[in-house]
Structures are given as C-alpha cells and as structure tokens.
Amino acid sequence: MAVRTRPIRTAVVGAGGIAQGQHLPGLRVLGDRVEIAAIVDMDGDRAAEVAAEWGAPLSFTSVAEMLEEVQPDLVLVCTPPGSHTDAVIRSLDAGASVWCEKPPTLSLAEYDAILEHEGAAGPYASYVFQHRFGSAARTLRSQIAAGDLGAPLVGVCHTLWYRDTAYYDVAWRGKWETEGGGPAMGHGIHQMDLLLSLLGDWTEISATMATLDRDVETEDVSFAHVTFESGAIVSVVNSVLSPRETSYLRFDFADATVEVEHLYGYDNSHWKWTPAPHVDTDAVSSWAPTQNFASSHAVQLEELVSSLERGERPAASGHDGRRVLELIAGLYQSAITGRRVQRSELTRENPFYWSMNGASATLKETLDA
C-alpha cells in the first residue's frame, strides 16, 4: 500500500467556536502534514476573517463552490447537526474524506445514506468522538481485548451536565427536527461512544426519559439499562439539569474496577484501576498506561490524518461510527414506546430508523423515491 507523501489539502466548513477552538488548532499541530486550504461559512465576512487568521488562502460561503475550486482531500464539518448530511455527501461525492462533528447525523437512515457515497478504498466519512482516543482509554481497550481484567460485568456511563435556559435560545437546539434529540444525542453521545468503543455492541435496552425543566421539544434527562453482547449490564444517564457537572464511567470486571471522572476531557490522572480482592495488588502497576496524552480533537485528528496517509479507513467511521447512533435510537424507541428494544429491531421497517422520535416519514419517502 502506497504511503501518501504530499500534504493533505483540508477545508473547514463552519467558522464558529468549535472550528476555531478545536479543529483549526488541531490542524496547526500537524504542521506540514496538512494544508489549510479554505474556510467556508454562511457569513462571508467571518469566513474571510478566520481564513486570514489561520493562513487559509481562500474563503467561501458555499460548500459546492469550495469543493469545485479547491478540490480538497479532507473536509472538516463544524456546522449545526441538521446540515451535516448534505455537507458530508457533497464532500464525499467530490472525492474528499470527511471528519464531521457530533452527532454524525439526525438518524440511522441519514448515516446509512452517507455510507453509500463512500468508496471501497475511500473517501471515508468519520466523526468526532475524541474521548476514545486518550492514552488511558486506549490502554483499557487493549486490556479488555486481551482479557487482562477478566470479563466485563457491570458498568456506569453518566453524563451529568448543566445547560441553562439561555443555552436553548439558539434556534436549532432542543428540537427533534434540527438537533435529533436532547442530551442523549447532543451531550452524552461522547461518553456513550467511549463506552461502546470499550465494550462493543449492545443487544437490548430499556429506557425512560422526561422533560422536567427546560422549554424544549426533546427530553432534558434520560435513564437507560443496557445489556451488551458480552452479557455486561450498564446504567446510562444523560442530563442537562445537573448543577455539579461530571462525566463518570465505571467498569467492573471480574478482576478489577476501572473508573474515569472528568468533565469535557481527561488525561491519565482522571482514571483509576482498582484490583479485585483476589488479585495481587502488584498487578496494578502493570495496568497503568505507559504514555499520558489527553482525550482531544487534536489527538483524534492526528490518528485520522495518519489513517488517510496510509490509505486506510479511519476509526469512528463505518460501523464503528454508527454504533452510538444505534444505541441512541434504541434508547428513544424504548423511552417513547415504554418497552424493551432489541438492537436487531433497528431496521428500515422501524420508524425509529428514520427519525430518533419515530415520527418523521419524510426522509424515508425521499430516500425511497
């Protein structure tokens, strides 16, 4: 397989806070491995200002125009959720791979529609799930694969965040049609992706949700009980009503408990390995990560670029990027219908495949036409 030698020409779509705070700094860290070729934003003045600040020679207000003129190798999509699918498909059809902010799409149907525009050897669409890329998570993933900690048995995955009423003044937030859901879709998705990247696929979910305090169409809190293919059982809570914010994951294996508590990112200091009573405590020293790098956009972006340089499918793409949307769709179906949901149910015949609240047939009619 040929290894790429020239810089990856990159365009950034959306010039808001997430692009300037995370994506563009992440590109700069990569030095001459990438070329920031263009910035796209509906606000032409902002696009031009951000392009000048980050050394991009071109700015645009149209994705289509940018793709035709720049012909990038990689497009970073940093726009609100409702615009992801169109930008990703346009980019793939133009021959560019994509790294798109969360949530990937507003439904499983949209995600699968994007997959049809990938090529067997690329371009690929991958998604921002940076929490699985820190050194501690990588270490734990390797330990699970090797069976070093024993079988996974019990887990906790809690995203307890706080978003005040002013947060929802942004027009697209808190609406099924434009955000795809509440905290399960827009906030807890990061922790749930980390959970799934460690424990693999799930089989059954039982959930409840409510809108207790925020003036939104979607939920502002949800609780779920999830069973995994391994047999492990995990508690999942997503909230935007929690004044003491925390992100907490705990994994109880036969031979150890592993925990991480952080807020929006972690390094090794946020993690703890505790051996079971029957395990020699000296084993703990061999469990500790040998490197210490934080979960971050920059770390995931470096791995993505390395994959593209090698001509390989990146992590958090294909099925690997889809599984968290499956879990969220199952969560919403269970909470709305009041029954347990099997992962195997989430097929094209299921209304929750087409929209997270099971209420929209518009996309199905469009894709079936």
TrEMBL record:
It comes from the Bacteria. Residues 8-118 form the Gfo/Idh/MocA-like oxidoreductase N-terminal domain. Transmembrane segments: none annotated. Coiled coil: none annotated. Keywords: NAD. Residues 138-246 form the GFO/IDH/MocA-like oxidoreductase domain. PANTHER family: D-GLUCOSIDE 3-DEHYDROGENASE (PTHR43249:SF1), UDP-N-ACETYL-2-AMINO-2-DEOXY-D-GLUCURONATE OXIDASE (PTHR43249). This is Gfo/Idh/MocA family oxidoreductase.
